[in-house]
Amino acid sequence: MAAPEPEAPTTAPSRAKDHSPWNWLLFIPIVVPLIPAFFNGDSPRIFGFPRYYWLQLAWILLGVATTTLVYQMTKKRGNP
Amino acid sequence: MWRDHLTEIIVFSLLFLLVSGMGFVAARWRAPKDMAHLDEWGLGGRSFGGWITWFLVGGDLYTAYTFVAVPALMFGAGAAGFFAVPYTIVIYPMVFLVLIRLWSVSHRHGFVTPADFVRNRFDSPVLALLIAITGIVATMPYIALQLVGIEAVLKTMGVTGDNALARHLPIIIAFAILAAYTYQSGLRAPALIAFVKDTLIYIVILVAIIYLPYKLGGWGDIFAAADAKFDASPNPNDGILLNGNNQLQYVTLALGSALALFLYPHSITGVLASRNRDVIKRNMSALPAYSLLLGLIALLGYMAIAAGVKPLPGATEGSVDNNTIVPLLFDQQFPDWFAGVAYAAIGIGALVPAAIMSIAAANLFTRNIYKEYLKRDASPAQEANVSKITSLVVKVGAVACIVFLDPQFSIDLQLIGGVIILQTLPAVALGLYTRWFHRTGLIVGWAAGMGLGMWMLYQVASPTRKHFGGSAFPLSEFGFDTTKTIYVGIVAVLVNLAVAALVTLAVRAAKVAEGVDGTTPDDYFADEGDPRVTPGTERDADSAREPVA
Asked: What is d(CA B482, CA B66) in angstroms, rounded to the nearest whole number?
């Protein structure tokens, strides 16, 4: 899964910051949790949890990681 | 008998009184210069920062009903109930992409409701009225369901009566207090109470997921007990994993519920109350903490199976009320005082969303019915006043639903609510990106989606009922040779979109007037500190603004 390259964000007009290609990454945590083939199974188990349960809980981390990354990459320059 | 639960009742009542006091004090918290304005009463001054937004939106989206009903579903059906987890994962990237634009355009134009936006974007008071009515109708049963959450707790504590009035008296009192402080403090009340509610819930769940598996022999044993229960049951679609028939339903229900949730007026109210775009974006990374909590709460359903909990009888003879399994599990496994804390968490958990929902419904009535059709020159103070009174009416309606009607009726209505709120997706969510759709197309599409959705829900049977038996529509009804099922809302909204597109092409060919778009492209990126447009003069201001490259 190749991350889309930002197209020279420094030269883009500030108003168009929401058109950042980084936003496309947000489709990963929308699509991946909705594919049952990944999680609909029993093994391997972790701490007694079947894969169905631990993997779907792990997608939460996928969502957090993606939104955090996109926020960091698209926030206004100059902000802390 | 209630005497056996005296400690629980005392702890519950004390915590309930504490938050009621907070609700009244909230009017003075971050006190505005002038409370008599809808921005202040209905949106907390549009000033909430990261922490408040986290508690407010978290307390808003994850309701008491969710905390009671999701484990009940896991208890009854198994893996299918876990849809709440993917559902609350996929919603946040969508909000990040879509609702942030609604925040900006609302900040610029002073919109309070999604229907305000639609009216301005598509220049159509009729479409705005349809969006507003859809929002109010979808929200009302959701408020009533919060009472079902409290009732499950009261029932477990033995607080019941011989007749309908005595049985419902505690709920009527609770809602009267809620109505009074919402009237006085507006959105500040649930924002402040949410701190207590969520702290209690996090404590209870952390204790539950560490202590209960230890007592019940570990997670392996808990899943084994659930597996054994579903193996023994005659229902082919339960189990601790999905089967070939319900995977499509699982996925479409998760996606459809996520789309519906962020279109619900109360979620939009929570988002619009935040201070700037960064607050919303950062919260999209922080709010999934609640999804983890919800996933663990869902597993309480399996713990109840492992602990051998038997649900209390339901409203009708011979039925059981699965919603009582979580309160019963706490009653059985926890010391009395801690069970009381857990019950208070659920009870207070009902108040926060109920307050926000009634505020959202009241704002829709005020902005899109009262101001649009009854009193066009209403002042901000009059708007705030009408909203306050409407919020009272909405709560009386919700209580009446529970007292006079079978609670099952509210559950059915909430099921319908999710499907109908989805029908606002083309106008509200897609409208934030494109004005390609024609207002006539959106209206006809809305009607088509509503009609189809209702018909499909009517056709769904369950083992106990012939109609409105759930949201899983068998595809064989459409003539497909399959036993698979699909979520009604997704089909309805796809038909809605298709009809809207076809009618748009047709009326555009017939050169029907499109109306004027009251927004400009850069409105959708506006942030805190950008100049605002006053509602009365926005047209002039728009044309004066420099064109955007």
From this structure: 31
